[in-house]
């Protein structure tokens, strides 16, 4: 009888525990991370839906479970910096040095300026490019990579600077030729003035604000040139008129010369005032023409001297 009562109590206990959920039993869970909404990252919280969880206990299965993803953060670019000690020993294979203080060198480990660029000389065919300035072409902007030398004044009114640059390509607005140029912006002025340029069309050099639309010339200067010496080379010997003294040279009779001067108001071969004002004065050619006129004048004087001597002789014979 005691055995029967013990078995009955054990059965009731087991049945009671079978009706309670087992908190220590293993749980099989399948989780899906597919979001309900657009999978693209969004700021704030995004709701995610998991798959059904299947329990191995008597606990009632849960159909859906929700959780929240953490707040979205934009990706951050990882930047690594390397600090170099001032007196650190450089790598034996290093070619450049960029210390925290002192001089920086490219191609040299012992720079003697704030920035020094050095490279071995080329083979005579390839240029030794140490620095290249480029810009992306703009159809309406100035395509001019430029270096600025400024006085460093932060007040825009007092700021002045020199510019050294190059117009590397034209645009759809300006028709100026490609050119290397030097400009200056003075204090209290808004515009930069171009003082010097060398254009790519025949290598013309311009100093100041002067029109360069003339072929056959290399140097254009505004206002004037002050120099202690000017030497003009003569390309053709015919532009220097020593042949005037040749015996076969025909001198214009003085009577014809008088008529020419009366009609034209200038000497033969010499440019007129209108021509000089329009085309300027060719210094070498003009000096050659002046020499020609002096030589012709000398021949006229010699001829007149002969005639005068002949006249004196004839008068002396008449007096005898």
Characteristics of this structure?
alpha+beta, 13 strands, three-stranded mixed β-sheet, single chain, six-stranded mixed β-sheet, 320 residues, 4 helices, disordered N terminus
Describe the secondary-structure layout:
Layout: H1 2-19, E1 27-29, E2 47-49, E3 53-55, E4 66-68, E5 96-97, E6 104-106, E7 115-117, E8 146-150, E9 161-167, E10 179-185, E11 193-199, E12 205-207, E13 219-221, H2 254-264, H3 273-279, H4 283-319
Helical fraction: 10-25%
Strand order in the largest sheet? 8-9-10-11-12-13
Q: Sketch the major β-sheet.
A: 6 strands, mixed
β-strand percent reads 15-25%
Which H/E pattern describes the elements?
Answer: HEEEEEEEEEEEEEHHH
- Given as residue ranges, the uncertain stretches (5+ residues, pLDDT < 50) are 2-8, 10-72, 79-83
Shape: elongated
Query: What is the CA-atom radius of gyration, in angstroms?
Result: 49 Å
Question: Care to describe what's here?
Answer:
- There is one protein chain.
- The protein is of the alpha+beta class.
- A hairpin with a 7-residue loop joins β10 (about 180-185) and β11 (about 195-200).
- The model is unreliable at about 1-10, about 10-70 and about 80-85 (pLDDT under 50).
- The N and C termini lie far apart (about 205 Å).
- Among the domains are: about 30-35 and about 45-70, no CATH class; about 145-220, no CATH class; about 235-320, no CATH class.
- Strands 8-9-10-11-12-13 form a six-stranded mixed β-sheet, with no helix packed on it.
- The chain has helices at about 1-20, 255-265, 275-280, 285-320; strands spanning about 25-30, 45-50, 55, 65-70, 95, 105, 115, 145-150, 160-165, 180-185, 195-200, 205, 220.
């Amino acid at each position: 009888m005691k055995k029967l009562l013990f078995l009955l109590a054990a059965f009731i206990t087991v049945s009671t525990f079978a009706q309670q959920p087992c908190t220590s039993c293993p749980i099989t869970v399948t989780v899906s991370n597919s979001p309900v909404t657009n999978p693209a990252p969004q700021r704030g919280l995004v709701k995610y839906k998991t798959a059904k969880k299947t329990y191995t206990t008597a606990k009632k299965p849960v159909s859906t479970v929700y959780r929240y993803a953490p707040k979205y953060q934009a990706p951050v670019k990882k930047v690594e910096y390397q600090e170099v000690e001032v007196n650190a020993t450089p790598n034996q294979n290093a070619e450049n040095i960029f210390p925290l203080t002192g001089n920086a060198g490219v191609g040299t480990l012992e720079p003697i300026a704030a920035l020094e660029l050095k490279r071995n000389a080329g083979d005579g065919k390839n240029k030794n490019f140490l620095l290249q300035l480029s810009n992306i072409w703009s159809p309406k902007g100035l395509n001019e990579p430029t270096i600025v030398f400024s006085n460093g004044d932060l007040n825009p009114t007092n700021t002045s600077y020199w510019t050294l640059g190059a117009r590397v390509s034209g645009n759809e607005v300006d028709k100026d030729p490609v050119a290397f140029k030097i400009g200056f912006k003075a204090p209290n002025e808004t515009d930069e003035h171009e003082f010097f340029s060398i254009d790519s069309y025949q290598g013309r050099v311009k100093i100041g604000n002067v029109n360069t639309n003339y072929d056959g010339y290399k140097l254009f200067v505004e206002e004037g040139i002050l120099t202690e010496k000017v030497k003009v080379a003569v390309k053709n010997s015919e532009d220097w008129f020593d042949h005037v003294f040749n015996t076969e040279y025909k001198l214009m009779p003085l009577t014809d010369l008088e008529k020419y001067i009366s009609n034209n108001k200038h000497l033969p071969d010499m440019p007129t005032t209108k021509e000089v004002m329009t085309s300027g004065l060719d210094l070498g050619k003009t000096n050659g023409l002046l020499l020609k006129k002096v030589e012709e004048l000398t021949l006229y004087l010699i001829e007149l001297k002969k005639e005068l001597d002949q006249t004196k002789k004839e008068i002396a014979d008449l007096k005898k």
